[in-house]
Write a structure and sequence with these properties.
By secondary structure, the chain is of the alpha+beta class. It has helices spanning 26-31, 52-73, 75-90, 96-105, and strands at residues 13-17, 36-41, 44-49.
């Protein structure tokens, strides 16, 4: 199975009751920016809070996955990709240096 680099909720998850939210000031959040907070009330999870950096990583990964799905659902793109794999298997490939050398000749 492929390894997913999508940031998962890690072991540093912390459960915070709604009544304790006032304790999460900017300084404490910066000190614990690698932590994920599950905000809950009466042991029922309501929201998840994590760093903006982790949010950006998740968005980038999601955009990458959506681009891949879009590419694979396009017959033209999928067929081009399959042809490229066949070229690799058949040894019909050139190095970047070879391509650059040919471009310099033109």
């Amino acid at each position: 199975m492929a390894t997913c680099t999508f940031p998962n909720i890690d072991p540093r998850i912390r459960h915070v009751g709604v009544s304790k939210l006032r304790d999460l000031n900017a300084t404490k959040l910066k000190e614990n920016e690698d932590d994920t907070f599950v905000i809950q009330e009466n042991d029922v999870p309501l929201s998840v809070l994590f760093s903006y950096k982790k949010y950006q990583e998740m968005r980038a990964e999601m955009n990458s996955l959506l681009s891949m799905i879009e590419m694979l659902t396009s017959d033209k793109e999928r067929n081009g990709l399959l042809e490229a794999f066949e070229d690799i298997r058949a040894g019909r490939i050139r190095t970047l240096a070879e391509i650059e050398k040919d471009l310099e000749k033109e």
